[in-house]
Automatic annotation (TrEMBL):
PANTHER family: PHOSPHOPANTETHEINE ADENYLYLTRANSFERASE. It catalyses: (R)-4'-phosphopantetheine + ATP + H(+) = 3'-dephospho-CoA + diphosphate. Keywords: ATP-binding, Coenzyme A biosynthesis, Cytoplasm, Magnesium, Nucleotide-binding, Nucleotidyltransferase, Transferase. ATP binds at residues 16-17, 24, 95-97, 105, 130-136. Reversibly transfers an adenylyl group from ATP to 4'-phosphopantetheine, yielding dephospho-CoA (dPCoA) and pyrophosphate. Residues 12-140 form the Cytidyltransferase-like domain. GO terms for molecular function: pantetheine-phosphate adenylyltransferase activity. Its cofactor is Mg(2+). Substrate binds at residues 16, 48, 80, 94. Homohexamer. This is Phosphopantetheine adenylyltransferase. The record marks 24 as: Transition state stabilizer.
Protein backbone atom coordinates (compact mmCIF):
# COMPACT_ATOMS: atom_id res chain seq x y z
CA UNK A 1 0.00 0.00 0.00
CA UNK A 2 1.28 3.47 -0.79
CA UNK A 3 2.55 5.81 1.89
CA UNK A 4 -0.27 8.19 1.14
CA UNK A 5 -2.85 5.58 2.08
CA UNK A 6 -1.44 5.79 5.57
CA UNK A 7 -2.26 9.49 5.59
CA UNK A 8 1.22 10.71 4.74
CA UNK A 9 1.28 14.12 3.07
CA UNK A 10 3.88 14.00 0.33
CA UNK A 11 4.61 17.28 -1.44
CA UNK A 12 6.78 18.00 -4.46
CA UNK A 13 8.71 21.28 -4.81
CA UNK A 14 9.66 21.45 -8.49
CA UNK A 15 12.04 23.94 -10.07
CA UNK A 16 15.23 24.54 -11.99
CA UNK A 17 17.37 25.29 -8.91
CA UNK A 18 20.20 26.55 -11.13
CA UNK A 19 21.59 26.92 -8.46
CA UNK A 20 19.67 26.62 -5.18
CA UNK A 21 19.55 30.00 -3.35
CA UNK A 22 18.78 31.01 0.24
CA UNK A 23 15.27 31.85 -1.04
CA UNK A 24 14.68 28.26 -2.19
CA UNK A 25 16.19 26.92 1.01
CA UNK A 26 13.84 29.08 3.07
CA UNK A 27 10.84 27.59 1.22
CA UNK A 28 12.27 24.07 1.64
CA UNK A 29 12.81 24.46 5.39
CA UNK A 30 9.42 26.00 6.02
CA UNK A 31 7.42 23.57 3.89
CA UNK A 32 9.29 20.55 5.33
CA UNK A 33 7.60 21.49 8.62
CA UNK A 34 4.14 21.47 7.04
CA UNK A 35 4.29 18.24 5.00
CA UNK A 36 5.34 14.76 6.14
CA UNK A 37 7.70 14.40 3.22
CA UNK A 38 9.01 16.97 0.74
CA UNK A 39 10.53 15.90 -2.56
CA UNK A 40 12.60 18.68 -4.14
CA UNK A 41 12.47 17.80 -7.84
CA UNK A 42 15.04 19.32 -10.19
CA UNK A 43 13.65 19.86 -13.65
CA UNK A 44 15.90 18.46 -16.36
CA UNK A 45 14.93 21.15 -18.83
CA UNK A 46 17.02 21.15 -21.96
CA UNK A 47 15.49 24.36 -23.31
CA UNK A 48 16.79 26.55 -20.48
CA UNK A 49 20.55 26.24 -21.07
CA UNK A 50 21.48 25.91 -17.40
CA UNK A 51 24.84 26.83 -15.80
CA UNK A 52 24.89 23.71 -13.61
CA UNK A 53 24.12 20.19 -14.84
CA UNK A 54 21.21 18.34 -13.25
CA UNK A 55 23.73 16.19 -11.35
CA UNK A 56 25.48 19.29 -9.98
CA UNK A 57 22.19 20.96 -9.02
CA UNK A 58 20.98 17.78 -7.32
CA UNK A 59 24.25 17.32 -5.45
CA UNK A 60 24.21 20.93 -4.17
CA UNK A 61 20.61 20.51 -2.98
CA UNK A 62 21.57 17.29 -1.20
CA UNK A 63 24.43 19.02 0.60
CA UNK A 64 22.39 21.99 1.79
CA UNK A 65 19.40 19.92 2.98
CA UNK A 66 21.34 17.07 4.62
CA UNK A 67 20.07 18.13 8.07
CA UNK A 68 16.41 17.77 7.01
CA UNK A 69 15.38 14.11 7.40
CA UNK A 70 12.03 14.37 5.59
CA UNK A 71 13.45 16.12 2.50
CA UNK A 72 14.39 14.03 -0.52
CA UNK A 73 16.16 15.33 -3.63
CA UNK A 74 15.30 13.95 -7.05
CA UNK A 75 15.16 15.03 -10.69
CA UNK A 76 12.61 14.61 -13.45
CA UNK A 77 12.27 15.31 -17.16
CA UNK A 78 8.71 14.19 -17.70
CA UNK A 79 5.59 16.31 -17.33
CA UNK A 80 5.34 17.21 -13.63
CA UNK A 81 1.99 15.49 -13.08
CA UNK A 82 3.28 12.21 -14.57
CA UNK A 83 6.29 12.36 -12.30
CA UNK A 84 3.97 12.98 -9.36
CA UNK A 85 1.85 9.96 -10.22
CA UNK A 86 4.99 7.82 -10.09
CA UNK A 87 5.78 9.22 -6.67
CA UNK A 88 2.20 8.92 -5.49
CA UNK A 89 2.14 12.64 -4.59
CA UNK A 90 -0.70 15.10 -5.14
CA UNK A 91 0.64 18.26 -3.57
CA UNK A 92 2.85 20.84 -5.26
CA UNK A 93 4.72 23.58 -3.39
CA UNK A 94 5.77 26.77 -5.15
CA UNK A 95 7.28 29.95 -3.79
CA UNK A 96 5.78 33.37 -4.44
CA UNK A 97 8.07 36.35 -4.36
CA UNK A 98 6.60 39.48 -5.90
CA UNK A 99 3.41 40.07 -7.88
CA UNK A 100 5.46 39.34 -10.99
CA UNK A 101 5.50 35.63 -10.09
CA UNK A 102 1.74 35.51 -9.76
CA UNK A 103 0.47 35.29 -13.32
CA UNK A 104 2.83 32.54 -14.42
CA UNK A 105 2.27 30.55 -11.23
CA UNK A 106 -1.52 30.85 -11.55
CA UNK A 107 -1.32 29.63 -15.15
CA UNK A 108 0.77 26.61 -14.15
CA UNK A 109 -1.37 25.73 -11.14
CA UNK A 110 -4.58 25.85 -13.14
CA UNK A 111 -3.06 23.86 -16.00
CA UNK A 112 -1.85 21.16 -13.62
CA UNK A 113 -5.26 21.02 -12.00
CA UNK A 114 -6.90 20.71 -15.40
CA UNK A 115 -4.56 17.83 -16.30
CA UNK A 116 -5.23 16.06 -13.01
CA UNK A 117 -8.08 17.21 -10.77
CA UNK A 118 -6.48 15.63 -7.71
CA UNK A 119 -3.44 17.87 -7.85
CA UNK A 120 -3.34 20.80 -5.42
CA UNK A 121 -0.76 23.58 -5.55
CA UNK A 122 0.29 25.35 -2.36
CA UNK A 123 1.98 28.73 -2.50
CA UNK A 124 4.34 29.82 0.19
CA UNK A 125 5.19 33.51 0.27
CA UNK A 126 8.83 34.33 0.33
CA UNK A 127 10.43 35.73 3.48
CA UNK A 128 10.66 39.49 2.63
CA UNK A 129 14.47 39.57 2.65
CA UNK A 130 14.46 37.02 -0.18
CA UNK A 131 11.71 38.53 -2.34
CA UNK A 132 14.12 39.88 -4.91
CA UNK A 133 16.43 36.90 -4.91
CA UNK A 134 16.57 34.59 -7.93
CA UNK A 135 19.05 32.10 -9.37
CA UNK A 136 19.50 34.42 -12.38
CA UNK A 137 20.46 37.40 -10.19
CA UNK A 138 22.90 35.25 -8.25
CA UNK A 139 24.54 34.07 -11.49
CA UNK A 140 24.73 37.64 -12.76
CA UNK A 141 26.54 38.81 -9.60
CA UNK A 142 28.85 35.76 -9.51
CA UNK A 143 29.74 36.13 -13.18
CA UNK A 144 31.31 39.51 -12.42
CA UNK A 145 32.94 38.17 -9.24
CA UNK A 146 30.62 40.07 -6.91
CA UNK A 147 29.89 38.79 -3.38
CA UNK A 148 27.12 36.17 -3.20
CA UNK A 149 27.75 35.00 0.38
CA UNK A 150 24.47 36.47 1.65
CA UNK A 151 22.44 35.04 -1.22
CA UNK A 152 23.39 31.36 -1.36
CA UNK A 153 24.72 28.64 1.00
CA UNK A 154 28.52 28.40 1.19
CA UNK A 155 28.62 25.17 -0.87
CA UNK A 156 26.85 26.98 -3.71
CA UNK A 157 29.15 29.99 -3.38
CA UNK A 158 32.14 27.67 -3.86
CA UNK A 159 30.53 25.97 -6.85
CA UNK A 160 29.85 29.37 -8.44
CA UNK A 161 33.48 30.42 -7.90
CA UNK A 162 34.45 27.20 -9.69
CA UNK A 163 32.24 27.98 -12.69
CA UNK A 164 33.35 31.59 -12.96
CA UNK A 165 37.00 31.18 -12.02
CA UNK A 166 39.16 33.97 -13.42
CA UNK A 167 41.28 32.58 -16.19
P1 LIG B 1 11.46 27.64 -12.20
O1 LIG B 1 12.34 27.61 -13.40
O2 LIG B 1 10.51 26.49 -12.12
O3 LIG B 1 10.80 28.96 -11.89
P2 LIG B 1 13.22 28.20 -9.98
O4 LIG B 1 14.34 27.36 -9.51
O5 LIG B 1 13.55 29.55 -10.51
O6 LIG B 1 12.48 27.31 -11.03
O7 LIG B 1 12.14 28.36 -8.84
C1 LIG B 1 11.50 27.27 -8.26
C2 LIG B 1 10.44 27.77 -7.29
O8 LIG B 1 11.07 28.50 -6.23
C3 LIG B 1 9.42 28.72 -7.87
O9 LIG B 1 8.18 28.46 -7.24
C4 LIG B 1 9.92 30.08 -7.47
O10 LIG B 1 8.88 31.03 -7.39
C5 LIG B 1 10.48 29.78 -6.11
N1 LIG B 1 11.51 30.74 -5.70
C6 LIG B 1 12.61 31.09 -6.38
N2 LIG B 1 13.33 32.02 -5.69
C7 LIG B 1 12.65 32.25 -4.55
C8 LIG B 1 12.84 33.12 -3.44
N3 LIG B 1 13.85 33.96 -3.39
N4 LIG B 1 11.92 33.09 -2.44
C9 LIG B 1 10.86 32.27 -2.52
N5 LIG B 1 10.61 31.44 -3.55
C10 LIG B 1 11.48 31.42 -4.55
Amino acid sequence: MSQEHFGMKIAVYPGSFDPVTNGHLDIIRRSAKVFDKLIVAVLNNTSKNPLFTVEERTELLQKVTSDLPNVEIDSFRDLLINYMKDKNAHLIVRGLRAVSDFEYELQMASTNQKLDENIETFFMTSTPMYSYLSSSIVKEVARFHGPVGDLVPVEVEKALHGKYARS
